[in-house]
Amino acid sequence: MSDRPDTGVVPGNWSLRAQIRADRHYAVYVLGELKDKRAVPLLIPLLRDEGINFEVAWALGEIGDDRAVSPLIEALHDKDPAVRLIAIHALEKLRASDALPHLHALLNEYEKIHYAAQVLVAEAAKAAIAALETKR
Predict the structure, then answer these.
(1) 16-134 sits in which CATH class?
(2) Any idea where the domains of the chain sit in the sequence?
(3) Dist CA 77 CA 106 (whole Å)
(4) 6 CB neighbour count, 10 Å cutoff
(5) Three-class SS string for 38-105?
(6) Long-range contacts of 108-117 (CB under 8 A, 24+ apart)
């Protein structure tokens, strides 16, 4: 395989590496949109893949399978605050009350996420705790 030539149809001169990266992001997105629980065992190991882990956390939340709860709780310890933030949202969506002690541990996490709205991990954890505690 080689880099894609610039044909004028697709903007830019994409490299093979960039195309593979884009395809992986899109594949995870599609799996999340399909909400097919058969994808869960394929996605869980990808929570450790720094190239797509935040999208995997989102997809697992969209799919809504309880098998994702424990791996998403583990993702709350990821070094990337974006992964932690999206894992929080996914756990909230999954109504994962098992995550409450782990979410409480993030209430002093003042690292900001640097995309879209600048959100603090602690603010997201506080909102998720409130939502999960009212759903008990």
Answers:
(1) mainly alpha
(2) 16-134
(3) 9
(4) 11
(5) HHHHHHHHHHHCCCCHHHHHHHHHHHCCHHHHHHHHHHCCCCCHHHHHHHHHHHHHCCCHHHHHHHHC
(6) 109/81, 109/84, 111/81, 112/81, 113/81, 113/82, 113/85, 114/82, 115/82
End-to-end Cα distance, the chain: 53
C-alpha 128: how far from its chain's center? Answer: 15
Question: Letter for the amino acid at 118?
Answer: Q
- Residue 45 in this model has a pLDDT that exceeds 60: yes
Q: Report the alpha-carbon angle 93-102-107, nearest 5.
A: 95
Angle at 81 between CA 35 and CA 27, to 5 degrees: 30
Model confidence at 115, pLDDT cuts 50, 70, 90, reads low
Model pTM score: 0.87
Rounded CA-CA distance 60/52 in Å is: 12
Contact 53, 80 (CB under 8 A): yes
